[in-house]
Amino acid sequence: MEKSFRKNRILLTVYFVLILIFSIYNFDDVFNGFWLSAQLIWEMFMDWNSFETELDIPTLDFLFASVVLMIFGLVSLISLTHIWLRRFQFLLILRFFGWLDKLSFQVLSGSVLVITLIFAAIESPIISTQHPNYYKDIIVTKLLPPLSEAKYVIIEDQNSSSNELTSIQKLKHKVLHLSQDDTKLFINSFKIIDDNFIYQQGKREYIEPLTHFEKVNGEMKIETRTFYLGTDDFGRDVFSRLIYSSRMSLMIGLLSVLVSFLLGGFIGYSAGFFGGILDTILMRIVDFFFSVPILFLIVFLIALFGNSLLLLVLALGLGGWMSIARLARAETISCKKKEFIESLKIMGQTNFKILTKHILPNTISPIIVALVLQFGNVIMAESALSFLGLGIQPPTPTWGSIIKSGYDFISSAWWLTTFGGLAIVFAVLSFNLLGEGINKQFDPRKS
Fold first, then answer.
1. pLDDT band at 73 (very low <50, low <70, confident <90, very high)
2. If we measure between CA atoms, which residue out of 132, 156, 224, 134 comes closest to residue 187?
3. Ordered domains of the chain (ranges, CATH)
4. Kindly report the CA angle at 12 between 10 and 13, in degrees rounded to 5?
5. What is the C-alpha separation between 119 and 269, in angstroms, rounded?
6. What's the chain's average pLDDT?
7. pLDDT one-digit tens code per residue, 352-368
8. Angstrom distance (rounded) from CA 241 to CA 426
């Protein structure tokens, strides 16, 4: 027990230190997020029409990421102070760490990995280096290996329209990643002769006047962008696409698991509690769906109704509810044989109250474990469907589509399939580790 306690504290310390370092490193984004929020609030009272124009989804996304990053940073700072300096001895903090100390190292490790995955999905606008669908000058940026650097220059706005931008628009241009940005010009090499800027893209050479480009102190402003995990066949940043792909995988996984729980739980609890002919009919329905290949079912639904996110969620949810139904039925049958359930029936409690207030709370633990483990299976299934072209359609980034984009370049662009596959492995491992840890710690038959 003491060994597990020390391991838990070391793990939490490392995790909170990393979160705190990340928060400090991106302090500018947090500050810009709150400054942008203040300007938007002022705009809301002063000019409602301008406020509606400026408050778009990418802006809300960045503001939410900034707030969450600040919260994570403060929680990390308070937690580290509590662990090592024994400060902030508030009741809430003491209860929180008392609860954490009771968890096994496997459960805590799985929880940390899952929270990291969720954190990366929320912080995508801050973690990523550019918009996941941004591409420019493909002849220069196409299929660059990891840690490659690409030179680019800024094309000066000849109409000086940038001077007409409001303070909110200038701040949004500074902090938001644009899906299209024609001011950047990526080049392989360059040279300056007299007042001409001669640059090369691929095998072609171009000549432009120096006045067309942005300068600093009269000198040409040459910048570089690092592609940490390389680029794909369209010149898009693989690192940014991997980060944003976690959003789609987590959202599809959550909604699909919710569909499985609602449908499987309703059928399983109903069959187990009422029994008789209803149990027989519902279990035969479960057996029928168990016999239908999931891939065939999804292809059939896509061919019948077309490809959409809602259809994919329903298809993946319908592919996993049967095991939840069987588990719920078995737990319900076992629970309703206990004496306190019989006593409740004699006292005149309604079936609905017995199911929701007594049987459900006493049988939900193994179902939660099954749902957590199913989450990883849904992520793999969604990635497989995206690889086959049956999942989320381009240009929306998914891990499966990233692997598919590298399929034709597997010998020359190994990083596409490798990093896409590692992302799937990390996500599935996280949920499986958490699910198995919960099962071992809270199942009395395995303790």
1. very high
2. 224
3. 2-102 (no CATH), 148-227 (no CATH), 238-442 (1.10.3720.10)
4. 65
5. 34
6. 86
7. 888 888 888 888 888 99
8. 16
